[in-house]
Automatic annotation (TrEMBL):
The lineage of its organism: Eukaryota, Fungi, Fungi incertae sedis, Zoopagomycota, Entomophthoromycotina. GO terms for biological process: lipid metabolic process. This is Alpha/beta-hydrolase. One of its GO terms (molecular function) is hydrolase activity. Pfam families: Lipase_3. It comes from the Eukaryota. Residues 57-194 form the Fungal lipase-type domain. Keywords: Hydrolase.
Length: 218
């Protein structure tokens, strides 16, 4: 799903018409694209439908400029408001703010797509900051019963830590498919730091310095 993550950086028109540089390979032939944008938060993404593979794909743009990083470096937490035993679970405030800015648009687009394709799998993707947004939006949609955990997959590339350990444990407990692709030397993977209470959730497909893919639990 890397092509979908890459396409999130393309212009709105090229995404809507699905003729961007990354709209090829596995992503070719996608249709009914809807652009998602929250200018005030400088956040963006899109929804598209892959009829060949029976998937509804929702992708979010990663860090594009310094404005995004102002959100990235905020280390305050937002309470996740989860049931016992995850009562103290928290999410990175900056990531949550950007995800929340796109949430209502995402919710409407997803609901419309599900109505048209009720048997399609839901796939959320994102690179870097976009990965954190993808996780939070998918989490919120599932919490609001808009989507089913079991029919949802999340694939992220170079995603930072989204929340604290309790939040990671909660999403790990859910019956969705979650895969983080990471690579050697990417500093974003270590942000925000564990010293501030942040933690990654499963599962990590790590590409080491020799180019070998290693499956890690965290």
């Amino acid at each position: 799903f890397m092509s979908y993550a890459g396409a999130a950086y393309c212009s709105p028109n090229s995404i809507i018409n699905w003729n961007c540089a990354n709209c090829k390979g596995y992503a070719s032939g996608s249709t009914n694209s809807v652009y998602l944008s929250a200018p005030a938060a400088n956040a963006a993404g899109y929804l598209t439908v892959n009829n060949k593979n029976k998937q509804i794909v929702i992708a979010y743009r990663g860090t594009k400029d310094i404005f995004n990083w102002l959100y990235n470096i905020i280390v305050l937490y937002y309470p996740a408001r989860l049931p016992y035993p995850y009562l103290g679970a928290q999410i990175h405030f900056g990531f949550y703010t950007m995800a929340n800015a796109l949430y209502e648009q995402s919710k409407t687009a997803v609901q419309n797509a599900i109505n048209q394709h009720p048997n399609y799998q839901l796939v959320f993707v994102g690179h870097s900051l976009g990965g954190a947004i993808a996780e939070i939006v998918a989490f919120k949609l599932a919490q609001d019963n808009v989507i089913n955990w079991i029919n949802t997959s999340v694939y992220t590339y170079g995603q930072p830590r989204t929340g604290d350990l309790q939040f990671a444990q909660y999403v790990n407990s859910k019956p969705w498919t979650f895969t983080r692709a990471t690579s050697y030397g990417d500093i974003v993977l270590n942000l925000p730091p564990t010293a501030l209470g942040y933690a990654h959730n499963q599962y990590n497909m790590f590409i080491n310095k020799n180019g070998k893919v290693v499956k890690c639990s965290t």
